[in-house]
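pinging the channel bc i need a second pair of eyes. not urgent but kinda urgent?? the chain im working w is below, pasted from the shared doc
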Amino acid sequence: MSLNSTHFSPPAKTADTHCDKVQESRMSQDSPQNESECGPGRRASREWWLHVSLLCIPLLAVYLHIPPPQLSPALNTWRASGHFFTFRGNNIFYKESVGVVGSSDVLLLLHGFPTSSYDWYKIWDSLTQRFNRVIALDFLGFGFSDKPRPHRYSIFEQASVVEALISHLGLSEQRINLLSHDYGDTVALELLYRGDHNRNGHVTINSLCLSNGGIFPETHYPRFLQKVLKDSGFISPVLTRLVNYQLFSRGIRDVFGPYTQPTEAEFWDMWTGIRFNDGNLVMDSVLQYINQRMKHRERWVGALTSSSTPLHMIYGPLDPVNPHPQFIQLYQKLVQRSTVSVLDEHVSHYPQLEDPTGFINAYLSFINSF
């Protein structure tokens, strides 16, 4: 049988399809009958979208108010072993351990973004075997510290938080060893600048060890989510509410090496620290530090290149945020007085978590060298 003689039954037309055809026809424009046929179809479509919207609104409201996860036993122990002091009306968490008897050496640890002082837990005990006092804090807006909003977070303010902590602990006359990572590197450089310029209340720095911080804007490559949150303006408060564990874990996995990935429980501890005190809602404000690094590059890089303080860099070379070899080559070119430890090729952006043994060996080798 030929195709011309075959009888095909056309599929039933939807109301909207029929209306489209009617609109294409000149007669439909003048025909009240066709207009009346299209009306019920359009009304049904509008009602469907209305029902969907009414269903999504409460679901979205529930999603945006998901309570933070409970603290794990490990985080509970860390928090219980710490203390709080007040800085300009905000509670700042810090942890302190007394270590070696007979030594007067003090070590202060400065964590990175977006995590907390808990980043140092894998090397904490080793550090207490070398130093008399080991101290770590959660910066304002991080970890167990308060996270005010709205608030203009800045590196300058975080440096003042550190100075206030040192004063609170009665260590203003003590020479302090600084060990920092990522965001903490830039806070350390502001402290270095203040110390070298004898600013009132400055921390007297005995030594400074940096690790995988984006101290050079020209070799710093923020993650996609960081760039979106820091530059989204008035819609940032909406975006911060939409960030969930899945988005967070997917992004932070990329800054660990393929063979040095944290466990799922460790990822949850990081996320829990962020969600504590609604920290996810201030991430856009805290992320302005990336713009501050560009604006104040001369101040902070200048402090690094001109300081006479003993300096060291511990570097995980697989870091996509501060990639090898561009970052370390620029560091060695500009900071010629500094020594450098490049860790195993599989270590990425969090060297103290990915290779704690290599990290602590590199740091102790530096600190024992002067």
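so Confidence is low (pLDDT under 50) at residues 1-32. and The first strand starts at residue 83 and ends at 87. — does that match what u expected or am i reading it wrong
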